[in-house]
Amino acid sequence: MRILIVGGGTGGTIVANNLARRLAGEIRHGGVRITMLSASDRHMYQPGLLYVAFGQMMPDELYRKQQSLLESSIELHIDPVEEFLLDQKRVKTAGGHTHEYDILVIATGSRIVPEEIPGLAEGGETFYSEAGAVKMFKALRAFQEGTVAVVVGVPHKCPIAPIEVTFALHDYFTSRGIRDKVEIKYHYPIGRIHTIENVAKWALPEFERMGIRYETLFNLKEVDAKKQIVYSEEGTETGYDLLVAIPPHRGMEVIERQSLGTGGWIPTDRRQLKMEGHDDVYVVGDTTNLPVSKTGSAAHFEAEVIAQNIASEVKIGAPVCEYDGKVYCFIETGYDSATYAMFNYENPPELKAPNKAMHWFKTSYNKMYWTSVRGLL
């Protein structure tokens, strides 16, 4: 049995490690082979980028060698896939190699596309890449007074990020003693301040307590970096002295190029996590088109279901469990407090009051992630 995992992010790494342990006997006796194809030999802890943007972490803290995170029985190749030949059960890589499989797991993730909004890349600061997070930190350090506008492109990964960065901005300028000189204005695409209704209801009084202005039904159309104005599709505009942007996202180019899914998101069965029309292909994490948050926690819970089902297919010829849409998200509410949201397909989140204990739990998880991605937590 040849199991091929394409993508070395959170979802792909957890699937691989979980399978390596569940199928240790089969691997040892030659009945199963697990291969991972990754675009990079380094694994990034992506949630840490927000901390980099506020000077709370250094970029080198975000990385580990991908090989060091994998069970020794997993064969790793740093060679991204250039073409999926699903009907032939094989893939072709950028290095000119071909890999055949019996079961394929696609975990290619997502990418930011700020260029889809004219002027956004030139006029906005963002924290969705290492370079962007460092640049944003330097811009924040240099900022003394004026209006900070937070704008949101869609779709985007980590849906809670707009709320988190807004809270962080409030605490950052407060800690510098210049909050009274800074106006923070938050803009969101729909008719409330977050897509999840319970999150919006919880965050609104927090915004009002912190003196954060907000405007809803503001869909990004264009940024005039010279005039420092953002225009919306609804015909409104907002001026800024510093623009903090959540950029729109798409799936990876290889998925779009082959038209495997609209916007790069692969049509995925919401319970079995298989690619629609392909019983031998699983999809995990940001790559799916599932109606759940594109977050590391969603990828983690999906990965556990996928690994358990692949292992049971190998052992007894049938899957044994389903994914219920489970997501668990920490929500940083400033420098020293946090809360969380836990929900699934059937149950919306019920948020608790932020507290310091949850903040320290979150900061501890920043270290525990490396254990988690190995599938040991």
For the biggest β-sheet, the strand order reads: 5-2-1-9-19
> What's the helix count?
10
CATH superfamily of the largest domain: FAD/NAD(P)-binding domain
* CATH fold descriptor of the largest domain: FAD/NAD(P)-binding domain
User: For the CA atoms, what is the radius of gyration?
Assistant: 21 Å
Query: What is the total domain count?
Result: 2
- What is the residue-mean pLDDT, rounded to a whole number? 95
DSSP helix fraction = 25-40%
Describe the structure.
- The chain is an alpha/beta fold and 377 residues long.
- The chain has 2 domains: 2-109 and 252-323, FAD/NAD(P)-binding domain; 118-248, FAD/NAD(P)-binding domain (3-Layer(bba) Sandwich).
- Helix content is 30%, strand content 24%.
- The protein contains 10 helices and 21 strands.
- The strands form 7 sheets. The chain has a 5-stranded parallel sheet with strand order 5-2-1-9-19, covered by helices on one side. Strands 13-12-11-17 form a 4-stranded parallel sheet, covered by helices on one side. A 3-stranded antiparallel sheet has the order 6-7-8, with no helix packed on it.
- Helix 1 packs parallel to helix 9.
- It is globular and about 65 Å long.
- It starts with a strand and ends in a 5-residue tail after the last helix.
- The model has no long low-confidence stretch (mean pLDDT 95).
